[in-house]
Amino acid sequence: MPERTLWACFSRTGLKTAAGVFAALIAVAIVVALTAFDQAAPGGSSGRGMAAKATSSPSGTVTPTSVLRGVNRPITVVGIGDSVTAGRTCNCKTFVELYATGLAFERHLRTSSVNLGVGGWTSSQLLRSLTTPGAFRDRVAKSDILLVTIGANDLVPLELGQSSDCTSTCYSALVESVGHNVELVVAAARAAQPDHPPTILVTNYWNVFQDGDVGTAKNGRSFQSWSDMLTRAANAQICDAARRAGATCVDLYKPFKGDGSKNPTSQLAADGDHPNHAGHQLIASALLANTPL
Is 232 within a domain? Predict the structure, then answer.
């Protein structure tokens, strides 16, 4: 609000109408006070004023806003999802903890992190846990920032069949199911704490299966080319679903693989499937770069 002085309310002959001017002064003071109060409490909420809100854009999608605005209390970061979130095979600090530490440093905040990733989980299993009353849902409900990585395990039946001849018409229904569940996961996470909705960041994948030198040696170049095509299709569904639900989609394909020609081996563990320490750092950096201000 532009600064203004109450003395501007007086005319040069104001002494002749002192009573009227005094009444005007009181009215102006009330307006200024009400305006300041309204600015201090966005959305008119008398609850947690720094809680993230979701606003509708002209296109009908939901635009996320940040829980970090005006925050003056500790921020709780919660990670949910599959073995990537859980940090399988890494034996290192996962991207959930690295992100919380980086957020504290970059935004001058106090943060804590909780990792609820479960190896092998599908999007259906995560959704079921979020919609069932219990400890898991309760812990998610305490998040200020929620990190979600899910969907790759839904596609495992395609990998087990080594279905490199499975074109988009073959896998489209399964990929669309992943996107549908991701949208429901975001909605369920918001429903877990309707009075304090978190900022939600959803990642996609560099590859839903093995990649790098290990993946090529085990599966061959034709399968790797096919899995890349499948990954791009899944990533598009995951991001579209996240945005529709009001979350921020964080792309991991480009950081790991660039335009698709970059070899991600140095960011992967010995199994060629999960990120190593460098990979988790890369994911944390991508999340930080995409956190709403």
Answer: yes
Within this chain, do residues 16 and 96 fall inside the same structural domain, yes or no? no
State pLDDT tens for residues 50-91.
233 344 443 445 556 566 655 667 999 999 999 999 999 999
* Judgement on whether residues 76 and 204 belong to the same structural domain of the protein: yes
Average pLDDT, whole number, for the chain? 82
223 in any annotated domain: yes
The interaxial angle of helices 277-289 and 95-107, nearest 10 deg, is 40
Containing structural domain, residue 201: 49-289
Tokens of 17: 């109408």
**Greatest alpha-carbon span in the chain:** 94
Residue by residue, DSSP assigns the chain as: -----GGGG--TTGGGGHHHHHHHHHHHHHHHHHHHHHHHSGGG-SS-TTS--EEE-TTS-EEE--TTTT--SPEEEEEEESHHHHTTTT-S--HHHHHHHHHHHHHT--EEEEE---TT--HHHHHHHHHS-SHHHHHHTT-SEEEEE--GGGGHHHHHTT-TT--HHHHHHHHHHHHHHHHHHHHHHHHTSTTSPPEEEEE--S-SS--HHHHHHHH-HHHHHHHHHHHHHHHHHHHHHHHHTTPEEE--HHHHHTTTTS--GGGB-TTSSSB-HHHHHHHHHHHHHTS--
Radius of gyration, alpha carbons of the chain? 25
pLDDT tens digits, one per residue of 246-271: 999 999 999 999 999 999 999 999 99
